[in-house]
């Protein structure tokens, strides 16, 4: 039985000041003084260009200005209704807060004001395309509203089929994250294009509010596909918790806000089915679930488990294993999971959150990048290399923010097919 429970990701807009879409207003003109040359009026170029047809419903209103700056933008549909939009952080365009509708006509009016107060308004009318017949790429956002997440949570979007390299920049430009207080980061693609993750250089600060928007509905992706959906969600970051699992000692150390709460004996994967070493994140939690490994190379069993917490798509969990309590702290007997006592597993469920950091060290194999939410399994520099767009200069971790046990937060399918294996 498949134990997947997908967290639905909803997209967020980038950290910008919301634009008030309203009527265009002209500033008061400055009287020309004798002997002074009259200032040039602003020149405005708006996209989509006037009378453009077959515009994707993911369209944005772009504007370039000479001799001034944009002071008002108004977007309306063919019934005169105003369409809310927000500016990008760099001011290059205005993004409607919802996808446009197919086969509709829209009018954009952009007003710019020069240094002398002279204004120019440029108007453009365009028509969106009919509903596309191209196949849609399925997108999944692993971020839902009204949740409390751990400080290591990477916002993750998965794709089926994968996004080709040449299309990743266009997709990434339509993925927005806003944090309060501000804590900028970047997106990074897993090599196969099935998953992209967002994080800041440092862990999220406890109490941070995060809003996400995956605005991909109707977006042309490559030559032969479009995005399937537009999702939005807002949640917050809770307390800082991290788990350090050491194969040498067969112990798990549980930290909260940098302080050791408890040490727990563990039994990890035996030599034929070793546990992965690496830096992971708790992905989902189950009070009770079923591991069905029939069909797996080293599986063939079905077992019900209590208090299970997923760490990888491949089926590695922390879970209650009363059958191995005599081995915990002494010898590895599992099929790759981290076995703990029933009492410890129940206690952990009350302490941890989805998004908490889990570090495993000293086992026979290393964690594969992309097998779970692996944004913290590489250095910041390596993570940033995975961005399809330029990463802002100066975006670096603080010296004390390197992930380590007990660190206080400072700051196959759409994803690899989640396996039900465990044990």
Protein traits:
Transpep_catalytic_dom; transferase; 6-stranded mixed β-sheet; 3 helices; acyltransferase; single chain; Immunoglobulin-like; L,D-transpeptidase catalytic domain-like; elongated; 423 residues; LD-transpeptidase; 28 strands; mainly beta; 3 domains
Indicate the topology.
Elements: E1 43-47, E2 52-55, E3 61-66, E4 69-77, E5 85-87, E6 93-96, E7 105-113, E8 119-128, E9 136-141, E10 148-149, E11 155-160, H1 165-172, E12 175-180, E13 186-189, E14 195-199, E15 209-215, E16 220-221, E17 225-227, E18 230-237, E19 241-246, E20 251-256, E21 259-265, E22 276-281, E23 284-292, E24 302-310, E25 317-320, E26 338-340, H2 342-351, E27 357-361, E28 365-366, H3 380-384
Parallel strand pairs: 2-8, 9-17, 10-18, 19-27, 22-28, 25-26
Antiparallel strand pairs: 1-3, 3-6, 4-7, 5-6, 7-8, 9-11, 11-14, 12-15, 13-14, 15-18, 16-17, 19-20, 20-21, 22-27, 23-24, 24-25
Region (Disordered): 80-103, 390-423
Biased composition (Basic and acidic residues): 80-91
Active site: 319 (proton donor/acceptor), 337 (nucleophile)
């Amino acid at each position: 039985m498949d134990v997947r429970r997908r967290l639905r990701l909803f997209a967020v807009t980038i950290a910008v000041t919301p634009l008030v879409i309203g009527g265009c207003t002209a500033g008061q003109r400055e009287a020309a003084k004798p002997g002074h040359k009259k200032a040039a009026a602003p020149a405005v170029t708006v996209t989509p260009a006037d009378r453009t047809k077959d515009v994707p419903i993911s369209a944005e209103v772009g504007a370039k200005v000479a001799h001034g700056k944009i002071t008002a933008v108004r977007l309306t549909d063919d019934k005169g209704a105003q369409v809310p939009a927000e500016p990008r952080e760099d001011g290059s365009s205005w993004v409607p807060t919802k996808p446009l509708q197919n086969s509709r006509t829209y009018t954009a009016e952009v007003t710019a004001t020069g240094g002398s107060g002279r204004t120019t308004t440029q108007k453009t009318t365009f028509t969106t395309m009919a509903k596309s017949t191209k196949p849609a790429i399925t997108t999944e956002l692993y971020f839902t509203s009204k949740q409390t997440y751990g400080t290591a949570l990477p916002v993750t979007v998965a794709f089926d089929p994968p996004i080709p390299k040449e299309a990743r920049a266009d997709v990434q430009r339509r993925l927005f994250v806003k944090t309060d207080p501000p804590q900028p980061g970047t997106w990074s693609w897993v090599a196969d294009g099935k998953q992209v993750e967002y994080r800041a250089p440092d862990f999220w600060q406890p109490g941070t509010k995060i809003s996400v928007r995956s605005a991909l509905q109707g977006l042309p992706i490559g030559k032969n596909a479009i995005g399937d959906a537009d999702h939005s969600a807002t949640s917050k970051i809770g307390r800082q918790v991290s788990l350090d699992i050491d194969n040498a000692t067969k112990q798990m150390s549980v930290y909260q806000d940098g302080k050791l709460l408890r040490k727990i004996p563990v039994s990890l994967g035996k030599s034929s089915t070793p546990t992965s070493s690496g830096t992971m994140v708790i992905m989902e939690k189950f009070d009770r679930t079923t591991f069905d490994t029939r069909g797996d190379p080293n599986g063939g069993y079905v077992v019900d488990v209590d208090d299970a917490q997923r760490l990888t798509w491949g089926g590695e969990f922390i879970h209650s294993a009363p059958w191995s309590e005599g081995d915990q702290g002494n010898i590895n007997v599992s099929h790759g999971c981290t076995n703990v006592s029933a009492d410890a597993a129940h206690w952990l469920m009350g302490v941890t959150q989805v998004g908490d950091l889990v570090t495993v060290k000293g086992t026979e194999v290393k964690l594969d990048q992309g097998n779970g939410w692996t944004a913290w399994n590489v250095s910041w520099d390596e993570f940033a290399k995975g961005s399809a767009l330029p990463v802002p200069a100066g975006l670096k971790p603080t010296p004390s923010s390197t992930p380590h046990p007990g660190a206080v937060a400072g700051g196959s399918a759409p994803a690899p097919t989640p396996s039900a294996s465990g044990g």
